[in-house]
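Prompt: May I have another protein with tokenized structure?
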Amino acid sequence: MDEIAVGVEALTEEQVVAVARHDARVRLSAGACKAITDSREVIEALADDPRPHYGISTGFGALATRQIAPADRAKLQRSLIRSHAAGCGPEVEREVVRALMLLRLSTLATGRTGVRLETAAAYAAMLNAGVTPVVHDYGSLGCSGDLAPLAHCALTVMGEGTVRVGDDVLPAAQALAAAGITPVELREKEGLALTNGTDGMLGMLTLETYDLALLLRTADISAALSVEAQLATDAVFAADLQALRPHPGQADSAANLRALLADSAIMASHRGPECTRVQDAYSLRCSPQVHGAARDTLTHARTVRDRELASAIDNPVVTVDGRVESNGNFHGAPVAYVLDFLAIAVADVASIAERRTDRSLDPARNHGLPSFLADDPGVDSGYMIAQYAQAAIVSDLKRLAVPASVDSIPSSAMQEDHVSMGWSAARKLRRAVDGLAQVLAVEILVATRALDLRAPLEPAPATAAVRAVLREAVPGPGPDRFLAPDIAATVDLVRSGRFVAAAEAAGGPLH
């Protein structure tokens, strides 16, 4: 995507990813420009009204009872942003900040916030110039908006604070000047409009749902490799058996496993009457049930995400009929819940993958393969410690699966007495998704070596294609070698989608 029109219509997952990760350009659509201009006229008409209007002629939060004189209203907006840009801790990733800015721009484009056109245009200009505000990890309670993260972005629009341009950290004023962007002097309502949104947690949800769609297909690939490598049966993945429990995700995962294992000589080698194994362990047999449940969780999360992408989050809002009304739509509960739900699913998919890996390394359970798949067990340790790394990650993922959204801490002198903690839920989900990619990479690394050790029997075309891609970066069985680079190379292949692409090229599209 070379350029994305931001308008009154909802953005898509693909558009958010294109801007956040791949620096696609943005522009305000003609419809957005009209909507912004029309709603600003409503705010301008109220600016001199002697009656108080929240965010226009009053203070904020617990200070909303104070009416602000017209001469102090520009100062009020500056003070709001400066005081709210109170983030601390590690710097947030560039892609997250860009997603946050894009989604705030999307809400501004709906015409429900009352900002001026030049203010919205400044956000588009910053995205296009690659000027990324420095945002910190702590400062959002996920209610009244992702306040501190959004305030750091608004501070940049004002020409204050610090930004990143490429690898350089610069004063915002210097970066804006170099990009030809004029700092904005905020006016009535604009400070609230730039900070009162759930854009940070929604941006992270959008990035992680995108990544999880790839990782769940990859999980089916890693499971298929393990099923094949451990001489397990694919009979349990039959469509009629899966239909007895008609969850859509389970059906899709089982269909993927059938496609990935089709025409496998390894599978065919133990289908005869001489095979005395009645059924396989749960980590093999129940892969579609676990992976499928995670898929259905992702489907639910995407439904919530799409509703949020179609939302206009601000307080107060300018209604379609020209009223300015307070509301509670900035509460992050809908997003926070699914962020936590996904973290649970991620932890369990990683957990079952680690169990499959452990079976491949144990000579008591791997059906004839050497201990830890080592070249010379005792002298060599093989993939013993790769499974340790998996286990450490899975243990961490279990902790990250503890919900953040059940923990509300009152703030703003009890005016904001129930908050969502959705930003925290999003931050831990990002770490969890990263961990899942690494766990699946280790399973693929181990299972492909097991397939090599099954020679001369050959794997299925799809799993063979996955192994071939891995062997371009990681050698096959042999004496112990420095293992960390092999794991890192496999993780890169997981994240790039090359394993999925190779499997689909050989065995057909995966669900």
In short: The CA atoms of residues 264 and 459 lie 5 Å apart. The first helix runs from residue 13 to 22. The chain has a mean pLDDT of 94. The radius of gyration is 26 Å.
